[in-house]
Amino acid sequence: MIQRIATMRRTAMRKTIARAAAALSLAVAATLGTMGTAQAAPAPVPVPAAWTSLTNSLAYVGQNDFCTGVLDINVESEPGKPGSATLVITSRGASGHGPGWAANPNCHVDLLVAWNNAGSIAGPQEQIALDIPAQPGEVVRREMNPGSGLIALTAGLSYLDVNTLQFLPQMSYPVIGYLMVP
Question: Which keywords does this Swiss-Prot/TrEMBL entry list (predicted)?
Fold first, then answer.
């Protein structure tokens, strides 16, 4: 029993050390990544490559008869507008079944976007209401002001409305990435 408790403590300590090492390496990377010469050439406008995530595709189940679809999430930043970025949401279309979808072939979702500088725990969040048609190609652009530096951004559908805390019949796995804002 004592050995088991000791093993559990060692495991907890290893996890704590691993988390601290990850936070330290992120802080060092952010510090070294923002260092540069004073005479650097300006970047071209816009800079879509500033956004880095494992995937840009957000598959979802929406609110109209459990409609489904995919959104592509991208972020652009302009060197001429320090501290600001543009969220670009592109629809790949939606589909659904049932009487609600037959009456209104639009998939309503409330996209939750949250961002913070990579060194903080929590930051601002915004809920964006989208009515996605069955045809692909609709683009929504939303300006946000996360501030300059390394920004962590999360976009996804939550089953709770962030303003009223009411249940929303929708769900997705989030898109999580990092953005370097000039």
Answer: Signal
- The total domain count for the chain is 2
Q: Please indicate, yes or no, if residue 43 is contained in any of the structural domains.
A: no
Q: Which two tokens stand for residue 64?
A: 């109209």
Phi and psi at 41, nearest 5°, equal: -75, 145
In contact, 137 and 180? CB cutoff 8 Å: no
Please spell the DSSP secondary structure of 14-63, one letter per residue: HHHHHHHHHHHHHHHHHHHHT---TTPPPPPSSBGGGEEES--EEEEE-S
What pLDDT was estimated at residue 106?
Answer: 94
Q: Which is more confidently placed, 79 or 17? A: 79
Contact between 150 and 117 (Cβ < 8 Å): yes
Q: DSSP letters of 127-178? A: EEEEEEESSS--EEEEEE---SEEEEEEEEE-SB-TTT--B-S-EEPPEEEE
82 or 36, greater pLDDT: 82
| Mean pLDDT, residues 56-61 | 93
Q: What is the pTM of this model?
A: 0.69
Cβ–Cβ < 8 Å for 41, 26: no
